[in-house]
Amino acid sequence: MSREIIAILRGITFDEAVPVTEALIAAGITRIEVPLNSPDAWASIAAMIAVAGNEAIIGAGTVLDPGDVLRLARMGAGMIVSPDCNPRVIVATKKAGLLSFPGVFTATEAFTALRNGADGLKLFPAFKLGPDGMRALSAVLPAGTECYAVGGVGSADFAEWRAAGVTGFGIGTALYQPGISPRDVAARAADLVAAWDALS
Question: How far apart are CA 32 and CA 42, in angstroms?
Fold first, then answer.
């Protein structure tokens, strides 16, 4: 079962990357990103792709440059996530055959992202937009637009956000923080998966 939960491993180190990835996949989370401003991000992503590339979509977050998109594509990454709506990054991502999830907050940014080929929208920071803002935005977005609430959202918020129209969630500190054990990540992931499955 594919769940629309993207694990955001900001700050992860190379030594943690593989065991945390394995813990997430075992719990049922198969979309995983390492922000490029994490320590040893490139090495971590390469190691994660090597062990889990057939079981999960491994990608990068905080991608700001088209050149980084090309490097990630050559490594075998599957998705590109950004904090902003940069048409150059979106176009490069789609030309490389990767999934594109740019960060948006306004209708202008959302439509710019979609016109340039984005697969889904990263609503960031979601806690500032709120479910009410999502309802207003979803009223004008094309039917079927994939929207992911990212930033300040946890399992307790899933039902309200889904009712407001989001497709899924990007989960960072509620799932992973530097230094916590893979076992703790697995427990947090299991809680998130249970909350997601309860909505089905």
Answer: 14
